[in-house]
Every structure is written in structure tokens, then in C-alpha cells.
Amino acid sequence: MARRRRSRQVDIFNFSFLDILACVIGLLIFIMVMVFVLQSAASNAAAANPRKAHDQRAQAAMWRRIAQRDNALASRMAGAAAGLQPAALPVNLALQLSAAQQAFAAAEARDAHERAKLLQLQAARSFARRAGRIAAAKAIATAEARLAAAQHKLRQIVARRKSLVRLLPVRRGAPNRAWSHVLYVDCGRKGVTMFRLLPNGHARKLGHTDNSDLNSSSSAYQKCMATQSQYSHGDVLFWVHPNAITTFNKAKAAKPAGVVYGDEPATARFSFATAVGQK
Hints:
Elements: H1 17-83, H2 91-160, E1 164-165, E2 181-187, E3 191-197, E4 203-210, H3 220-228, E5 234-240, H4 245-254, E6 260-265, E7 271-272
Parallel strand pairs: 1-7, 2-5, 5-6
Antiparallel strand pairs: 2-3, 3-4
């Protein structure tokens, strides 16, 4: 036999009477509270407005009193100033005051004029110093350029010239016109070196003597001096380097008394041109 289907029951959400009553009571309570709050605020505002109006009126009155006091003080000061005008003063005092004011104005004008002149003088001095510095700098630059050019030219001349020296024979004057026997002494810092001139223009080295042995009879210097003193025209020529002044003085003191001598300054690069094979 067939089963009977159960009928579905539909659930309907319904408010009960008590729920509706509770909502209405709550709404009435809320409305009463809001009315009470609004009435309290209105009463407080009405009570505060008279006090605020009273404070504003008191403040306005205070400012009016202050303004009246300031106006009275200004009026008294204006009256006092009017009493000090030259028209209210005696004639002599008014003239003296006017003269003093004119003198003060003239002094201020002179002071301004002097200040202007001082500023102009300072500007002129500053310009003159600046111009002087510029001119001095230009002169220094020109001098430095000329010095550099001269130094370059001197270096070129020295580079072209030989560092060795060729000496020519020396001939005596009339009547015999004899050749002089010249002994060349190269004075160095530590000693002397003797040279004899050859017919080809070169110099032959005769020997070297230290400063400590110049007075020794066995030294090459004393032997050359002894040989030189035997010639009728035996001369000695000292070539003195810049650092050999002491050596020259010692060699001159150790020279025999009868020997004729002379001296010539020599540069640091000076040396004798010796013959080939000679030292």
C-alpha cells in the first residue's frame, strides 16, 4: 500500500503582544529622556546669556575709560608742547633757539660733507693701491719674462760653447819679441794642477799638488816653480775657481819671491783642453 506523504508545516515569525509592548515602553522612555535633556540645555543657555552680556558690557565700559584717559593725556601733552613753541618764548630766547637750530643743521651738513669726502678719499686710495698692485704685478711679470728669456739665451750660448779652453801663446813686446814661458796653475778646492802650453794650442798637464803639500820642496808645485824661475820671461797665471780662494792664497804664499804671477777668475765649468794622449 502506498505511503502517505507528510504535509510540510510553514513557520511564520510573529511578534507577541509582550514584545510590542516592551518596544513601545522603551521608545516612550527614550523620548522623555531627550525632552528632559533639551529642556535642561535651554535653561542653562538662558541662565548663561545674562552673565555673558553683563561681561561684554563691563569690558566695553573699561575700554571706553581707557580711551578717555589716553585722549586726556594726549591733550595735556599737546598743550605743554604748544607752550614751548618759539612764539610763546621771549624774543631773545626764540632767536637763540633758532640760531642754535641753524648751527646744528649747518654742523650736520658739514659732517655729511666730510663723510662724503672721506668715502671718496678712501675709494681713491683703494683704487690707487689696486692700480699700484696691478702695475707692480705687470712689471714683475715682465721682469720675470725677461729674466727667463735671458736665462734661456744664456743656456743656449753655454750649450754652443765648448767647456774646454784653448790658450794661445804669449809673445813679449819689442825689441826681442821672445815667447814667454807661462805656467798655468788651475786652482781647485783640494789642490792645484800645473799646465804648460803646447805649440798646437793645447795644454800639457805637468802635475798635481794637494793643499797640504804646497810648501813641500818635493811637490810638483815647487818643482814647476823652480823650473819657471829659471826662465828670463817665466810668468805664472793662476786660474781661480769660485770654491778655490783658500787654495789660491796658499799657492800664492808658497810661490818663490822672484816669480811674476797673475790671476784670472774661472767658472765652475772651466777646464784646460789637453792634447790627445795627455792627461
